[in-house]
Amino acid sequence: MKVVIQDDSPAVARYGAYIFREQLQKQPASVFGLATGSTPLSLYRELINSTRRGEISFSQVRSFNLDEYMDLAPQHPQSYRAFMDREFFNQIDIDTANTMVPPGDAANPLTACSEYENAIAAAGGIDIQLLGIGRNGHIGFNEPTSCLASRTRVKTLTRQTIDDNARFFDAGEFQPQLSITMGIGTIMEAKLVMLLATGKSKAKAIKDMVEGPVSAWCPASALQMHPSTVVIVDEEAASELSDPDFFKHIEQQNQALLARLKSRRYPS
Ligand SMILES: N[C@@H]1[C@@H](O)[C@H](O)[C@@H](COP(=O)(O)O)O[C@@H]1O
C-alpha cells in the first residue's frame, strides 16, 4: 500500500487527478470505478477543468459507480446517480450511456447485483477504482463485518453511516437504510485502487486501514492485500499514523527516481 501525504485537500485532489490524466492519456478507453461523497468532489472538479482545457477526454470511458441507496429513484436528488450526473458526468464529455450506477430501484435487486458484476467483467474489469472511506473504515457501503471476499450485493447501513449521511436529507424525509454496493472482492479486482481521505474525522479509519490487522472490522484494511493501492491523504487524515515521516520520505525517493528515469537518455 502506497501512502502519499499531501499538505491539504486541494493537493490531494491534484495528485489524484494527475494519476487519472496519465491513465487517460495512455488508454483513452479506460474503465473507471467511481465514488460519491464529499471527498472526491475536488478531484472531479480538477478533471472537469482538465477536460475543458482539452487535456483529456472521457468520450471513450466507461464507468461503474461503487454503490447506490436502495429504494431511491435515480431522479431523487440524493441518489448517487443524481449526484454523479450533477457533480461530474454532465460536466465532462462522457457518453452517459457508458456510466453505470447500481440500480437502487431495481424490481429484483438480487438479479441486479449479479448483472452489475457481469457488466464490469464484460467491460474488461476496472482500471482505476476511486474510493473514499467512512469514519468506520467502510469502502463503498461495505460496512464493518463485511465479508472481505464479498461481491456486489445488498447491504444494510450501520447507524453511524445513516447518521453521517443524514445531513443530505431533509428532516422527516425518507432516508434509505439499505444499499447496493460493489463487494470488497469486486473492488480488489481493480487494477489500481486509489483511496482519498481528508480531515481529522478520517484519521482513525486511515490508521486502522494502513496499520491495523486485516479485519472485517475495518473493511478498508483488505486493501493491504491489493498489489496496487495508492492512498492519498492530507496531513489531518494522516495525523494518527505511527510514522508519517516514513511515508513522506518514500514519496520523496519515488519522485526523485521518476525524475531520474525521465531525464535518462537512451541510445536511439
Ligand atoms: N458510500 C459512501 C462512501 O463511498 C464514501 O466513501 C463515504 C464517505 O463520504 P465522505 O467523502 O463524504 O466523507 O460516504 C458514503 O457512505
UniProtKB/TrEMBL annotation:
Membership in a protein family: Belongs to the glucosamine/galactosamine-6-phosphate isomerase family. NagB subfamily.
CDD domains: GlcN6P_deaminase
Domain of life: Bacteria
The protein, known as: Glucosamine-6-phosphate deaminase
Gene3D superfamilies: 3.40.50.1360
Record flagged with keyword Transmembrane helix: no
Top class in the EC scheme: hydrolase
Oligomeric form and interacting partners: Homohexamer.
InterPro entries for this protein: Glc/Gal-6P_isomerase, Glucosamine6P_isomerase, Glucosamine6P_isomerase_CS, NagB/RpiA_transferase-like
